[in-house]
Design brief:
Number of strands: 19
CATH architecture of the largest domain: 3-Layer(bba) Sandwich
CATH topology of the largest domain: FAD/NAD(P)-binding domain
Largest sheet: 7 strands, mixed
Bound molecules: flavin-adenine dinucleotide
Number of helices: 7
Strand content: 25-35%
CATH superfamily of the largest domain: FAD/NAD(P)-binding domain
Distance between the termini: 23 Å
Radius of gyration: 21 Å
């Protein structure tokens, strides 16, 4: 508790790791606190093909995150594995309290990202980890030669659907609209893939089964018609992968920082409404939530933290 860091970074996703790199290179005494594995959400991505300068064909999210973490550590960033439970950000010394203790810093960069949204269908909780997944990179191999459904229509959903075709017997993409939001180049790949089919204007209403996910009830939002997709008795299992956006990890900051629709408001220099407190990455109000924009935010926040301390 005696140490007062120049900067404390909360979160080890692309925003936090880039902030660590820039703060470390500026010789700021920097602590990065992460509660789990490095990389945040990018560690859920089976293939990252849009991070600039990335030439490694089909590089996975965890591999990219490992390189980012190593680069930050090379510049002297101190790492700590802990979950922050409460914060006091108003004074000149900011305090973050975690399960293992308190951490003090002259400035704080909040890069705590977001978590995948749930579908909100009947029995969802019961089948998470038993057929329902939010991470193709983690769980695709469990669905080898099984039918798999993917919910969503953005970049992540379509990219992960493509990845799942390497394992699954078939992939059905369920989307609530009649066209995809994903980048055109990714859409083209999906439309050309013989393993992928589409259920348009459709939502998942219910999941069912005894122990494992055995059936999915889908409703057409235009006609109201319901269809039930059941696992083949020989398989005994279906896969349902969900990629429909994220909820920001801002519970700790409610009533402390200015929020908009749950996301932290910043100016273009990542400054929040409190002096010395910056926010970077998916957790803040912005138009594009990607690894490259998160990393860019982290770089700006670290430079601004240095100016603030100076
Ligand atoms: C399946 C999937 C595929 C994707 N594919 C791509 C892609 O191909 N290309 C691309 O550019 N982007 C992709 N994205 C989006 C990209 O991953 C995110 O935009 C990016 O990770 C956001 O970075 P971040 O650092 O802001 O937050 P996050 O990545 O969410 O990291 C936040 C970190 O903070 C930690 N944290 C949160 N709260 C606490 C706490 N209280 N205490 C301690 N630690 C805490 C979390 O554990 C997490 O590690 C994908 C996302 C998903 C889910």
């Amino acid at each position: 508790m005696d140490t007062i860091y120049d900067v404390i970074i909360l979160g080890g996703g692309p925003a936090g790791l880039a902030a660590g790199l820039y703060a470390g290179r500026s010789r700021l005494h920097t602590l990065l606190i992460e509660k789990g594995a490095d990389g945040g959400q990018i560690a859920l991505s089976s293939e990252v093909e849009n991070y600039p300068g990335q030439l490694a064909e089909g590089e996975s999210g965890p591999a990219l995150a490992a390189r980012m973490a190593k680069q930050a550590e090379n510049f002297g960033v101190v790492r700590c594995l802990d979950t922050i439970r409460s914060v006091n950000l108003t004074g000149s010394v900011k305090i973050l309290s975690g399960s293992k203790g308190d951490y003090q810093g002259r400035s704080v960069i909040i890069a705590a990202g977001s978590v995948p949204k749930r579908i909100g269908c009947v029995n969802e909780d019961k089948f998470i980890g038993k057929g329902i997944s939010f991470c193709a990179a983690c769980d695709a191999a469990f669905f080898r030669d099984l039918p798999v459904f993917v919910v969503g229509g953005g970049d992540s959903a379509v990219e992960e659907a493509l990845f799942l075709t390497k394992f699954a017997r078939s992939v059905t993409l369920i989307h609530r609209r009649d066209s995809l939001r994903a980048a055109k180049s990714i859409q083209e790949k999906a439309f050309q893939n013989p393993k992928i089919s589409f259920l348009w204007n459709s939502v998942v209403e219910k999941t069912d089964g005894s122990d494992l996910l055995g059936s999915i009830t889908v409703r057409n939002v235009k006609s109201g018609e319901q269809s039930v997709f059941r696992a083949d008795p020989k398989d005994g299992l279906l896969g349902l992968f969900v990629f429909i956006g994220h909820d920001p990890n801002t519970k700790l900051f409610q009533g402390v920082l200015e929020l908009e629709n749950g996301f932290i408001k910043t100016d273009e220099n990542m400054r929040t409404n409190l002096p010395g407190v910056f926010a970077a990455g998916d957790i803040r109000v912005k138009s594009l939530r990607q690894a490259v924009t998160a990393a860019a935010d982290g770089a700006v926040a670290a430079v601004q933290a240095e100016l603030y301390i100076g």
